[in-house]
Amino acid sequence: MAVHILGIRHHGPGSARNVKAFLEETNPDVVLVEGPPDADHLLEWSNHEELKPPVSILVYESENPKKAVFYPFAEFSPEWQAIQYAKRNKLPLHFMDLPLNHQFALSNIAAETDSQSAENSDTNGNNADGEPSEGLNNDITAEYIDPISLLAQAAGMDDGEKWWEQQFENRIDNHEVFEAVREAMQVLRETLPSKENKLEQLREAYMRKVIRQVEKEKFQNIAVICGAWHAPALNDLKNTSKADNEILKGLAKVKTECTWTPWTYNRLSLYSGYGAGIESPGWYHHLWNYSEDDGTRWFVKVAKLLRLKGMDVSVAHVIEAVRLTHSLAAIRKLSKPGLEEMIEATLVVLCSGESILLDLIHSELIVSDCIGTVPTEIPKPPLQLDIEKLQKKLRLGVSAESKAYILDLRKDNDLEKSIFLHRLELLEIKWGNKQHAEGKGTFKEQWTLQWIPSLAIDIIEKGSWGNTLEDAANSFVINKSAQSDSLAEITALLEGSIPAELPKAIDALILKIQNLAATSGDVIQLMKAIPSLVNVSRYGNVRKTDADLVSNIAKNMITRICISLPAACVSVNEDASAHLLELVFKLNDSINILSDQDIFVQWQQTLSSIRRNHNSSPVISGYTTRLLYDQRILTGEQLINTFSYSMSFANDAEKAASWLEGFLKGSGTILLVDSALWNLINNWVADLSEEVFVQVLPLLRRTFSEFTNSERRKLGEKAKDGNILTNKSNQKPSEESFDFTKAKKGIPVVLQLLGIDQTKVNI
Amino acid sequence: MSNFLREHAEQLYAQELEELIKQDSDKKPFNWKLSPQSVVTYLIGGKLKNGFEISPKYIGNRRLMEIAVATLTTDRALLLYGLPGTAKSWVSEHISAGISGDSTMIVQGTAGTSEEAIRYGWNYARLLAEGPSSNAIVETPVMRAMKEGKIVRIEELTRIGSDVQDTLITILSEKTLPVPELNSEIQAARGFNVIATANNRDKGVNELSSALKRRFNTVILPVPDSIDEEIDIVKRRVESFEKIMELPAEPPALQEIRRIVTIFRELRSGISSDGKTKIKVPSGTLSTAEAISVVNNGLAMAAYFGDGLLNASDLAAGIIGAVVKDPVQDKIIWQEYLETVVKPRDEWKDIYRACRDLL
Q1: Backbone dihedral angles phi then psi of residue A437, each to the nearest 5 degrees
Q2: Which of A76, A589, A699, B309 has CA 20 to 30 A from B267's CA?
Q3: Does residue A49 sit at the B interface (CB-CB below 8 Å)?
Q4: What residue ranges do the domains of chain A occupy?
Q5: Among A323, A328, A333, whose Cβ lies nearest the Cβ of B75?
């Protein structure tokens, strides 16, 4: 009877090759792989032809899907090769790590006891924001790199990863390599002060337990594939038996679920934010598939990529690059050029020393965007199935690269896509990113889709809301609205729900808004809600939703606002009034969009009453005066009086400045073209006595400093030109000088532009 | 001490090269004096097996030197590219000294470099007297290097006119130099290769044609990464200068060198060393090489006109000379720098005063 312990590096192509060769040579009768036994039943899928790596086993806590661990496999992962070997030869195959149902339970307990300590050193890899970690890679960072760099230093290299790569991964002859790895790790484990890590002890105890169990089942030739660090610990099975049983007794347990999910190379690589991983999955992929390649094939790939991007790369370049890598390897006394040499040769030969192109090669080839597939018939949560069905139906491919879609909502198919994406967005499944579409009209939408594997967790997590996307989105939104009392939040939800076409949710939201609006005395909250409501009502034409309902609510709310706004503008401090001013500004926009005569009248009355109230916040009072002037309610003498009154010397300087600021808000350009406004201010300034002028000068400066540089310059030039008191643009053309025959000629074109049938118009 | 103002690398470091040859156990390419590994050791420095210390010639990334040397073992020529003063010529001199034991095969590229300077010329007296014969040919360094299987250096390749540059194509791809007048050719012996240098700051240079470009591997020599690296470079080069010039001045304190290097780095990168202040960048390159010459200059000032100790006033003129290349723009930049960055530094008072006095 023999137990073969194969210590490997996770995702090491050399290790994978060694494992494969070793298994083929020794013909074991059972294979054990470091991995979660919770997912043992998933292994039956592992030789399914549609299960193409990179894929990952996802194990999550049934009660709390946020607590999840990924076990990713690439084609070049030793574990994957071991699994494939076992499946090919129909051998029994088991995972043997400490089951995650225990690990989750342990970390839950740890989290509870540690909840007071700020640093949550969760060994299970679930960091504070609940992002799942990759189970396998965990080992590498936790206790793996450091000891290896010690060995590397002993060998005179500075980087542990590189040393390992040269020693074990790039090696062609692998005679007794596993023996060597085990011995090296044995020495390291003995010399390094061992960290008293409970979880590590449990894991290794469990692994030994599994091996003993398999032995008992009368298997003769056992192959064990585990991280190199664990290899020595699994050797001694006899003497540890008692202690292991002791330590594993009565471990807490939670319920877990697991499934296969597609993975990407990008996620395997270091820079995707996980902290642990491998730097160059694309390169490893190449190493695995073409282990005998001396760089030629690699450089041909690089050259092809560069040509695709419009760079001239000849065959001669490739030849020279290959030669250079060989020379470099010889100088560095390496048996074979590695990735470093490839990169350097690429830079020097193919890129003429310019490193910009290297970034491209790095993302496209060295990391490479590759995504795996998972067979459709694997048992999955119903919501996920529904989403996949819709993806297929709508031809929205899952891809690791980001892809842009422009949807024309007048087409049924695009409309459906948009509904689908909006629903996902409401469910907080962030696959699509909606962007501002160029061009006019509300019928166009632009989305960028990029699939990241962690979306699988989000989908599973949202599975509890319903079995189809529509159901889930509906109940998710309804629940969210029930929990919120903020009008702005609810209207934002409504704004999202209308394009997602969720009638149930929309009904609930509208009801909620009506209730809140009726009871809310907070005019600011109402005002915040208006812009999105008005936006919603604009969708009416393209979307087949009942926009009238929404615009009625909006009008209702505006009426309420009109009633209570004047009171809200009294005795507010400067910060609050600046905030309020913004709201009034937006509200005014929304009212213009609504273009409802009733509302206009109400709004004008409100504005007038704010203006007349001397206690209104000066900046708002100034702004309302301007709005009234814009709407030609307040003109001529009356305007001049109001202006002089507000700017008169007796007023508090601070207040006068605020008033002017409000009055001229965003109107630098208007001031330039509107002669009436210009005259008003010009005359006022001209009428000031020198003494008073000096006193109000700071106020004016303050206001005018809000304008852009070019506006200020032009205003200055205009003032320099002298008093332009004639108002040309407002002058009515005199009857005599008007040429009717000439004017008539232009009318048909104008009609055509406006889309009016000329024959039906009586000119 | 030799009688020459400046010795060639292979003369100055003859002992090191000799020791390296003795200790060299790796395989040598044909006609190379040293194995590629030993050439890299010669450049980067290190200790030999018998304890002999090799001084570093290039301070910086070892991998770059490996790439440069590896290039010369292949079919391609080497193009060293970078800002002025990043040790391009220095590296090319030492590589050829290491490989061929001879750094004297050199063609200086200028706008006036003609084809005859690269291929061959004629001794017209002989040509007229004897008619075309190989005796009437005036050999260029390129031709000699081809015959002897050595490295030839072409300085400032991009300053040479494009048509002249392109005569190198046959030499680099066919490894032969046809002499149509004699209906013969010079075939390059093994070991022949070309190291060219070019800088990317100059205006009015002639870009390499793509046919020529692809005969070269381009290695970009960067400005020193860290301030300590740069100080180390300046210190070593100043020391060797002192030795040759036999200046009666004390060797400069590290403090002084650090200040010079800091000033140069700050003005070059446009940001103060604490990362807090933005600085305008003057038009000069302010390379490490210029920092070296400022210190050397200061040493000479101290030795002959000062008290033998290098101090701020000895350096000030040199610094200003290096920084202010454009009398109007750069002067303003320098004044700004002086007032905003140098003045507030307490321990820099002397240098501030010295520089102020000179403006």
Answers
A1: -85, 140
A2: B309
A3: no
A4: 2-117+135-272, 292-367, 382-465
A5: A323
Q: Under an 8 A CB cutoff, do B70 and A330 touch?
A: yes
Nearest CA among A483, A481, A527 for reference residue A507: A481
- Whether A324 sits inside 8 A of B210 (CB atoms) is no
B67–A328 C-beta distance less than 8 A: yes
Single-letter residue type at A623: Y
A/B interface, count of CB pairs below 8 Å: 53
- Chain A residues closer than 8 Å to B81 by CB: 353
Interchain CB distance below 8 Å, B70 and A316: no
CATH architecture entry for B9-220: 3-Layer(aba) Sandwich (3.40)
Is A317's CB within 8 Å of B214's CB? yes
Contacts of A556 (CB under 8 A, 6+ apart): A514, A517
Residues B219, A331: C-beta atoms closer than 8 Å? no
The Cα B140–Cα B155 span in angstroms is: 14
Q: What is the pLDDT of residues A87-124, one digit of tens each?
A: 888 888 888 888 888 888 888 887 777 654 544 443 34
Question: CB distance A348–B81 less than 8 Å?
Answer: no
Cβ neighbours of residue B6 closer than 8 Å, sequence gap 6 or more = B244
Q: Where are the domains of chain B?
A: 9-220, 227-358
The pLDDT value given to residue A270: 55
Which one-letter amino acid corresponds to residue A531?
Answer: P
Q: Are A703 and A665 in contact (CB under 8 A)?
A: no
Q: For chain A, positions 261-320, list CB contacts with chain B under 8 A.
A: 312, 314, 316-317, 320
Note whether B217 contacts A332, CB cutoff 8 Å. Answer: no
Pairing of the two strands B184-187 and A221-227: unpaired
Torsion of CA B270, B272, B278, B284, to 10 degrees: -30
With 0-12 / 13-18 / 19 or more C-beta atoms within 10 angstroms meaning exposed / middle / buried, residue A684 is: middle
CA distance A75 to chain B (A): 32
Given CB atoms, is A356 within the 8 Å cutoff of chain B?
no
* ipTM of this predicted structure: 0.79
A261 residue type, one letter:
T
CA dihedral of A708, A711, A717, A719, whole degrees rounded to 10 = -100
Gap from A323 CA to chain B (nearest CA, Å): 6
List of chain A residues whose C-beta atoms are within 8 Å of the C-beta of residue B75: 320, 323
| CA–CA min distance A691, chain B (Å) | 41
- Chain B residues near any Cβ of chain A (below 8 Å): 36-37, 40, 63, 66-67, 69-71, 73-76, 81, 210, 213-214, 217-220
Query: Per residue in A446-492, pLDDT tens?
Result: 888 888 777 877 787 777 677 788 888 888 888 888 888 888 788 88
Of A316, A330, A348, the CB nearest to B217: A348
C-alpha–C-alpha distance, residues A420 and B111, integer Å: 67
Whole-number Å distance between alpha carbons of A320 and A299: 10
Over residues A300-328, mean pLDDT: 89
Strand order in the sheet with A133-134: A133-134, A68-73, A55-61, A256-262
* Residue A257 backbone phi and psi in degrees, to 5: -125, 160
Closest CA to B264 of B242, B236, B239, B294: B294
Q: Which whole-number Å values give the CA distances from A652 to A183, A658, A693, A702, in the listed order?
A: 87, 10, 15, 15
Q: How many angstroms from the chain centroid is the CA of residue A46?
A: 31
Give which of A105, A197, A76 is closest to A144, Cα–Cα: A197
Q: Does the model's pTM come out above 0.80?
A: no
CB A719 within 8 A of CB A672: no
Alpha-carbon distance A324 to nearest alpha carbon in chain B (angstroms)? 6
Among all residues of chain A, which has the CA nearest to that of B71? Answer: A324
